[in-house]
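Page 37, top half.
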Amino acid sequence: MEWLFFGLIALGLVGVFFSVISFPLFMILILLLTGIIWLVDYLFFQKKRATGIDEPTAVEYAKSFFPVILLVFLIRSFIAEPFKIPSGSMMPTLLAGDYILVNKYTYGLRVPLVNNIFYEINHPNRGDVIVFHFPPDPKVDYIKRIVGLPGDKIQYQDKRLTVNGKLLEVVAEDNYDYEMEGANIISARRLQEQLGEVKHDILIHDIPNHYDSESLGEKLMNGETITVPAGNYYAMGDNRDNSSDSRVWGFVPEKNLVGKAFFIWFNFDKFGRIGNSIK
């Protein structure tokens, strides 16, 4: 049982470590460590090492891991990054347990850690499903759908969206039953919504919404029209009555964008979802 005991301790330490330090920072630190070990050995010790003498273990590991870590770091930072969907706020588009890929270059190449754009490519469009750093706590990543672009005027009355004075078209589809953690089976109405060029499904429940005073959600419920500030986006979950989104915590700053979700690559419980594109 000793291996189990020490294994649990190790897992606990790893959990504490990653609660303090972000994974991108961890990647950079390991990349620097292995690179420095390899470089120092090459500059100062390799030529002095007698023929037939093995490299130190640390150098051997550094030379083996550095190229792999560098490749993974470049792919995750500038091409695509995997994420796991933690909740049902984006149902029925995304389910809790979906493993997705996020395009990291669609909205421009960004400096790792600080997330500043150094090469601009495209801007988000209405209907895009985005991953972003949660504004109240940037260490946490959220996923929602962009509803409002900078300058857009948003209204949300009777669970219907109006963007720039145009009521979005919806088409009733069917009832959608699902089970929430710690709750019974919940039934919702599934509707198809036309958001810009994107047609996507949303869920509407026959329950009232409640928001804190001065929140965007409270203002919308009171019939106010909100204007999306420059450099920000208004985001909502597809599971409209079961989503903590811009109605609760405000706008998404452009600097918080991580990338555009585009592909489901795995789901342990629903293999049929593997390979689905995200729209």
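Page 37, bottom half:
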Amino acid sequence: MNVAYSAHASAAAILFAVAVTAGLAQKTYPSQQIKIICAFPAGGGTDLTARLLGEQLQKILGQTVVIENRTGASGMIGTGAVAKSPADGYTLLVASGEMAVNPHLYPKMAYDLDKDLQPITLLVKVPNVLAVNMDVPAKNVAELIAYAKQNAGKLTFSSSGVGNPQQLTGELFNKLAGVQIRHVPYKGAAPQIADVAGKHITMTFVSIGAAKPFIDSQRIRAIAVTSLTRVGALPDVPAIAEYPPLAGFELVNFFGFLGPAGMPDPVLRRLNAAAVQTMKMPDLVTKFRAMGFGPAPTTPEEFRQFIRTETAKFGKIIVEAGVKLTE
């Protein structure tokens, strides 16, 4: 037998088998119920995003989509469960920006974000709003910075926990504005806002959806948003970046859609196409923007690069601010 011919035939057979398998995966997926694990509690922004996504995926893909909240450890329990699941496209993940923070705070993680998970698409970017209690005389960023310098070491800002994107936004603000505003962590948005409204805390970086009822009822005052440009839910509130000395300031949370590493490419592409289609639906875009979320669907490759960029950005802030979980 001709050895070269035999090797060539074997290689061709392998390629043919791979092509057939990929084709079958594309034609038959999904053939059963899909489970999306939300790494955060029911009722929050991540959960709401997962449920709106799942509702539309069910219609587009023609299979039942269920949402399971598997919470704890800053999203690492739910994320780890997906990382260890079969790479068949039937166990997926919706998680938040904590995924880009955790590697810098937890030296021993049960999974490697870059190696064990397959990004599908970025879903939304979630800017925060910088808001102050009603006794603070500042009405804009310039006045707030001046007030903080006049009261060095006396002011406080709240977030919903140590090391989350809200705290890191505050630490970045401290550095770029040249001020020292002390961080006070809370367990969730409700208490972090309540203590600003109650004038126990000077200011907060918090999600727009959680803050808007307090802003509308004039229990706290919105100073600026943390996105590069203004947000439709608060059109009259400027971006921090509009203050010339802080031009370019941007730090936002995000929610994304991922699966286990190793999913067949046709399955990955089908999930990406369905999720992108969902995130571009006009009625959903309107809902998300009303909550202060900015729909921002991507390709899997773009989302992977986005995660890497945000991970590096958050890591730099954590190191420079000396953020530790024992705070």
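Margin note: The two ends are 72 Å apart (CA to CA).
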